[in-house]
Design a protein that fits this description.
This is Ubiquitin carboxyl-terminal hydrolase 40. This protein is of the alpha+beta class and 1181 residues long. It has 23 helices and 53 strands.
């Protein structure tokens, strides 16, 4: 079987092997990747070794050859250990081939290396065990046609061409033919694709159609015998394919997995509606072969004649790309190409026109191809025993290191074209494999190789584990600008952290431009410029630092760290409010202490503490402005040489310094004393007076409901005083009962008079974070132990100070049990409640979804406030979806809204009629009607089609007759408007990242729709001639599979409107601006000239095209002006200008009246006004 395989030059022996004292050859840093889902290994291309790789894979997938190779032991081949011995005879090539096949079978890597095998080559072979039939391709329809010509047709010698008989020594009539005498178990067929044109004196590749069957019966081509017919039946098991021309190209191989060693599964079935595989194949063939498309154009012309210039224009119109861009590099100029194919095209004498020769008829060629297809499909039915072939064969496309599963019918694509079959490998169908070899890659491998591969796999796993710790993937947290609002000096989520932050895993070796494009594709709803900025959480909230710039730089070069927070926004404002960025203006959360104000407006001898946020680059004097103190003295906390805290006064001239220059940081404390107070600290002779001696006390109030002579007392203390001592001293000075020593606790009092969590007796003043001069309440009841939590809770999200209830629970209690305890204490019934944690801004945070988790696991701490919110959370893995019915409105639409339904949550059947915030009355583009159907719970793993089906079971939807879910289009609801399109019916909901509570609207359709992943839905409107108005909207589905280019969209719109592409103009409508932006190749060309790296992509600036956008269409045959606007647009822009002027006037009046300083007064509740959150939210949609 091996011929002269063992005759070689031993000087080329490789020193490399797996096993003892040998190391696996991998990259210096990164180990080879594991096998992909096919569980098969490819072979790395060393450079020009693709043909060798294809042959080696074919031999590897020939089980009989593989097992014969493995059957050779040390007696026949020797061993690597003896290679340096002078008298030893070591067969290096088969040993290396054994090792390569063992790696392909067992080593967990995506591709093996052939470097050691190629280093050991050195034999020549004149004899092959696989019979190689060389068959012609030129002027032959297929393999059977070639075999028929070679072995069936007889050459007749008669008339003037008689045969000279050597026996009788005279000319006689005779016939000459050839037959196959003996068939091998494996048959190799070489297709003569490469020929030489003696007229043009150049080589060329035959790309015509050449069919070959998957199963073939060779009996008609063999000598007659009594053998069983099945002895002549062969199955195709390998096809080596060449892609390219006669001067270069690439080889890969289609291989049938006889032993089912691989995982033959398709990861994702992507289908497009009304498009078949044959259509896609034909389309690819037309694009790749200029001969076919040029002949097709000429056949459509009268007399098959056309000017050469018009031929180029017709080509551009047909395929969307010019000749120079697609074919010039490979085929040369168009006129030269026509001259080179003079057997098909005829140029006029002045080369101005071209015609199609009669022998170049495309119809004859298509009939010829259809005949070949018929031969391929009917071969098996005409051959005996072919119906016994298994119905499902496992085929793989092995392209060097890449392995992909394919279907048997995909072989038909290699019949013709620049990528076509070059060698065919058949095996006798009677060759049976042993059952134990099926799906068993270890079958037949020698023990020493098994042990070697097992050791190599362990080594690979170790290296991969080491690499994974320092891999190249980054975990990024994307904070979406439209989901945030600017409040209290920092950014905070509008709804919850979970819905505002998206996690993204990204390769740090890719560029910033790649990251931006990935985020852009992820956020289908995004419109406008997209800016990425590094953000960080500070105690005040989220703050934006430097803006990322340089799309050509990798994330490594930009020093993006793992777990980095990135803020995605337009780079200017959030919710209509400009956002300060950079480390200079980082917000600082300061604890400001000042004397409380009594009900009569005077000062109380009680210090209160309140949190305030200031930019780092603001002046320290801004503290006085925030507290409405005209003149005062500020003290900051400092540590003296003894290690104790002092209050140090800030000189008046230093009040103009910034917080950062003054050394203030987050959580720093500032004491404010009005200059009118008698005990104000002053500066004398340049020395700083410290307030430590004056404020080295804590004030304790009697809140035990027991009468005493004193309401409150001052207890002297230091930062190291124990809280227990302070409590006992307060009880004595208040002259209360000694029993309180065992059943009382101290609780800090905040600036609003609210009692905070009790302070453990074992803490010192410093450990309890108590500020000197602050107030404590002496309350009945023991402080919680170290294993207990003191929690506040209230019902609903509208928290009023002082209305919270209190509870002490074990930190190991579960969320479910904690909820029950709080419901019992508040006297509430039912199981439709859940808990949320309140943040420092007194806003409801994320729900506590894991009901079985303990409070400690969820990092709930003493003093936290939990909110009892009505409404049961969906189970883990489920979504709560509010469903709306969406009917695109119009001037005569019957969808109306009622005044009492414009605000709040509508009941089933309620209607929202949302118009653009600046919309003109009755503007067609600005109106959206949503009818509330109800809520449903659905699994995250459910598909969009299942969501539609369940939505139609809601009681409010029973009035609407929908034949099937395919007659519905699903959108997310964002700001009471359709947002993202859920386009793929089979896609799970969790891949859309909808959040645990989301809103969906369903749009009824007139016909069934099944959108593909690259289909975009646009609302087209034809402009009415002579009027500044448009016809009603008509949906257009645009396949963006060939790119989001202007030319592709214009061709689709022109075809949709049955108009020439040069006779239309289109524009996108921006309803928030009441503007139309024309979409033309000229605009894109200007963009390219200004910035060369800008691609012709309508997803980017300035169009930001997405689903649901309105496209205006103008017929230039009847109207050629440049105006796309309507009277409603003019009115809308005028209204916007009036609103802007009115807003500026109000701001000016407010500044003059001093109204801006009214906000400095302390509100009754520590929450900033939220009216500003509604400003320009719509600008992000």
């Amino acid at each position: 079987m091996f011929g002269d395989l063992f005759e070689e030059d031993y000087s080329s022996v490789s020193n490399y092997q797996y096993g003892k004292e040998k190391k696996l050859k991998t990259k210096a840093l990164e180990p080879p990747a594991p096998r992909e889902f096919t569980n098969l290994s490819g072979i790395r291309n060393q450079g020009g070794t693709c043909y060798l790789n294809s042959l080696l894979q074919t031999l590897h997938f020939t089980p009989e050859f593989r097992e014969a190779l493995f059957s050779l032991g040390p007696e026949e081949l020797g061993s690597f250990e003896d290679k340096d011995k002078p008298d030893a005879k070591v067969r290096i090539i088969p040993l290396q081939l054994q090792r390569l096949f063992a790696q392909l079978l067992l080593l967990d890597q995506d591709a093996a290396s052939t470097e050691d095998l190629t280093d050991s080559f050195g034999w020549t072979s004149n004899e092959e065990d696989f019979l190689d039939l060389t068959v012609a391709v030129k002027n032959v329809s297929g393999l059977e046609d070639a075999l028929w010509t070679m072995y069936i047709e007889e050459e007749v010698f008669d008339c003037d061409n008689l045969y000279h008989c050597g026996t009788c020594d005279r000319l006689v009539k005779a016939t000459k033919s050839a037959k196959l005498r003996k068939l091998p178990p494996f048959l190799t067929v070489s297709l003569l694709r490469f020929n030489f044109d003696f007229v043009k004196r150049e080589r060329y590749k035959e790309t015509s159609c050449y069919t070959f069957p998957v199963r073939i019966n060779l009996k008609p081509f063999c000598e007659q015998s009594d053998s069983d017919d099945l002895e002549y039946v062969y199955d195709l098991f390998s096809v080596i394919i060449h892609k390219g021309g006669c001067y270069g190209g690439h080889y890969h191989v289609y291989i049938k997995d006889v032993d089912h060693l691989g995982n033959w599964q398709f990861q994702e079935e992507k289908s497009k509606p009304d498009v078949t595989l044959k259509d896609l194949q034909n389309e690819e063939e037309i694009d790749d072969d200029p001969l076919i498309i040029l002949k097709a154009i000429l056949l459509q012309e009268e007399n098959n004649v056309i000017p050469v210039d018009q031929l180029g224009q017709k080509l551009l119109k047909k395929i969307g790309t010019s000749w120079n861009k697609k074919y010039r590099k490979q085929c040369g100029p168009l006129r030269k190409f026509l001259q080179l194919h003079s057997q098909i095209f005829l140029l006029s004498s002045d080369e101005s026109t071209v015609s199609l020769l009669k022998n170049g008829s495309l119809q004859a060629e298509s009939d010829f191809q259809r005949n070949d297809q018929h031969i391929f499909k009917t071969l098996t039915s005409e051959s005996p025993g072919l119906n016994d072939r298994p119905s499902c064969s496992h085929w793989f496309d092995i392209n060097d290191s890449k392995v992909q599963p394919i279907k048997e019918k995909d072989i038909e694509r290699q019949f013709q074209g620049k990528e076509s079959a070059y060698m065919l490998f058949y095996r006798k169908s009677q060759l049976q494999r042993p059952p134990e070899a099926r799906a068993n890659p270890r079958y037949g491998i020698p023990c020493h190789l098994l042990n070697e591969m097992d050791a190599a796999n362990i080594e690979l796993q170790t290296k991969r584990a080491e690499w994974d710790s320092t891999n190249s993937n980054l975990e990024l947290r994307l904070h979406l600008g439209p989901h945030y609002h600017f409040f209290n000096g920092a950014l905070h989520p509008v709804v919850s952290q979970a819905e505002s932050v998206w996690d993204l895993t990204f390769d740090k070796r890719k560029t910033l431009g790649d990251l931006r494009q990935s985020i852009f594709q992820l956020l289908e709803f995004w419109e406008g410029d997209m800016v990425l900025s590094v953000a960080k959480f500070v105690p005040a909230g989220l703050h934006v630092y430097q803006m990322l710039d340089g799309d050509d730089l990798t994330l490594c070069e930009l020093e993006i760290a793992d777990g980095e927070d990135l803020f995605v926004w337009n780079g200017v404002e959030v919710g209509g409010i400009p956002i300060p960025t950079g480390s200079d203006c980082e917000p600082l959360l300061l604890h400001v202490l000042h004397l409380a104000t009594s009900s009569e407006g005077g000062r109380c001898p009680r210090l209160v503490e309140s949190p305030h946020v200031f930019p780092s680059n603001a002046e320290v004097g801004a503290v006085l402005t925030a507290l409405a103190v005209p003149v005062g003295v500020l003290f900051i906390s400092a540590t003296d040489p003894a290690g104790e805290e002092d209050w140090v006064a800030i000189p008046e001239e230093d009040l103009k310094k910034t917080f950062r220059e003054q050394g203030l940081r987050n959580q720093s404390s500032v004491l404010v004393q009005d200059s009118s107070d008698d005990n104000s600290s002053l500066l004398t002779q340049g020395k700083w007076f410290t307030g430590m001696n004056e404020i080295s006390w804590l004030q304790v109030q009697n809140l035990c409901e027991l009468e005493s002579e004193e309401k409150q007392v001052k207890v002297s203390a230091t930062v190291n005083t124990v809280v227990f001592d302070i409590r006992i001293k307060a009880i004595k000075e208040l002259k209360l009962m000694k029993e309180l020593a065992e059943n009382s606790c101290l609780r800090p009092i905040d600036r609003n008079g609210k009692l905070l969590r009790p302070v453990p007796d074992s803490y010192t003043v410093k450990e309890a974070e108590l500020k000197m001069g602050s107030s404590l309440g002496l309350c009945p009841g023991k402080a919680p132990t170290s294993s207990q939590l003191f929690l506040f809770f209230t019902v609903g999200s509208d928290v009023q100070p002082g209305t919270e209830m209190e509870i002490i629970v074990e930190e190991t209690v579960s969320v479910r049990d904690c909820l029950k305890l709080m419901l019992e204490k508040s006297g509430l019934l039912g199981d439709t409640w859940h808990l949320r944690k309140m943040d420092w801004c007194y806003e409801a945070g994320e729900p506590l979804c894991e009901e079985d988790a303990t409070l400690r696991e969820l990092m709930i701490c003493s003093g936290d406030t939990l909110l009892l919110i009505e409404g049961k959370l969906p189970p883990p893995g489920f979504l709560k979806v509010s469903v709306w019915w969406y009917q695109p409105g119009g001037p005569t639409g019957h969808w109306k809204s009622h005044p009492d339904q414009m605000h709040g949550t509508p009941s089933p059947g309620g209607v929202w009629r949302a118009a653009s915030t600046q919309g003109a009355p009755g503007d067609l583009h600005g109106e959206v009607s949503l009818l509330y159907l109800g809520d449903l719970e659905i699994s995250e793993d459910a598909t969009v089609a299942e969501l539609k089906s369940q939505a139609m079971t809601l009681s409010s939807s029973s009035e609407r007759v929908v034949p099937s879910p395919a007659f519905l289009r699903a959108w997310t609801v964002e700001g009471r408007r359709p947002g993202r399109l859920l386009r793929v019916n089979r896609q799970p909901l969790k891949e859309y990242k909808l959040g645990r509570k989301t809103e969906i609207c369903l749009e009824p359709l007139q016909k069934e729709e099944n959108l593909g992943p690259q289909d975009v839905v646009l609302r087209t409107q034809m402009r009415l001639p002579g009027q500044r108005a448009y016809a009603p909207c008509v949906d257009l589905v645009w396949d963006t599979g060939r790119g989001w280019t202007t030319g592709s969209l214009r061709q689709r719109v022109a075809h949709f409107c049955s108009l020439p592409v040069e006779k239309i103009e289109i524009a996108k409508y921006f309803p928030e601006k009441f503007e139309w932006l024309p979409i033309s190749s000229w605009n894109q060309h200007l963009t390219k000239r200004k910035k060369k790296k800008k691609q012709d992509n309508l997803q980017g600036a300035p169009y930001y095209l997405k689903d649901g956008d309105t496209i205006g269409i103008k017929n230039l045959l009847v109207e050629d002006d440049e105006d796309f606007g309507t009277a409603g647009d003019d009115l809308g822009r005028e209204t916007q200008q009036q609103l802007a002027l009115g807003k500026k006037s109000q701001e000016a009046l407010r500044v003059q009246s001093g109204d801006l300083f009214s906000t400095a007064k302390m509100p009754g509740r520590p929450r900033a006004p939220e009216a500003s959150l509604s400003i320009h939210v719509g600008s992000f949609r």
